[in-house]
């Protein structure tokens, strides 16, 4: 009788390969990218340069105000630094081009692109704005490092950078540049309302960063690196969660790059990767601990978590994009409208460009 056992075994093995790829990540979680000592030292050197340069600028400005009387109208206007954090092409660059049009003196662009991924550099206003970057990975402290790298570069580059907006490659603007700029710079916080400033000079403008303390999975996220590993620097009642995309004022940006104490905890490897999103924990926790009154505790980036999969929010497709969607995404529960929205698939670009002048940039 013909023995077909080898054939059956080979056929079964062949069928098992798809199942292996499907279930292997559950049994063998991917290893996170580790931050090497040379990379850490390189970042520290950048942070020190940016800190010293910023402190020097602040001192000069202080002496200048004491020694001269200058009309505010003659002072250069503050700028917004747009910090793009990406590991793929900036598919919505044409839409951002329209957003930035005719405002070249009021913004700067900085792009941190994962060097391990081949990315086609966009032209126009984005050309020449890629910073020295390092490999990043979702759910690892490398995304914290990338954001800090962007903040330090922007602080060092232009003393007029006053707001720092961290943006995903999947983000789109929901308003015109004028609307956003005027919204950010026409509601200052006076010294009388800010008695507990993080420095001798009060913050003029609050930062916009989501800071939550009642997230259902907070305990699991807190212990993702091991039980009570975050102690004593970060007790559980001080641990916070929020969005990794935010807008910081200059003083908070400086606070972030100067931090060493909390960073030593948040850079630790995760044991439970399904509960560990360092980039969503570090920034809200740091600002909540150091200057709780200096932030709005909400973000200006709209994200739809309905029907999220694998920790990713809902991704809008081209058929969903309409004037009604843009108007709906703008609506918030705060006194500010949402300024950005994510996450959009690349096929939305054509429809968004069609709506740009008639809807998105018509406030």
UniProtKB/TrEMBL annotation:
Chief location: membrane
Under Pfam families, the record lists: Branch
Lineage top rank: taxon: Eukaryota
The listed locations are: Membrane
Keywords, sorted A to Z: Glycoprotein, Glycosyltransferase, Membrane, Transferase, Transmembrane, Transmembrane helix
Please verify whether the record's keywords include DNA damage.
no
Transmembrane stretches, start-end: 6-24
GO CC list: membrane
Q: How does it sit in the membrane?
A: Single-pass type II membrane protein
Q: Name one GO molecular function term.
A: glycosyltransferase activity
Keyword Glycosyltransferase attributed: yes
Q: Which InterPro entries match?
A: BC10-like (IPR044174), Glyco_trans_14 (IPR003406)
Record's protein name: Uncharacterized protein
Q: Species name for this entry?
A: Cinchona calisaya
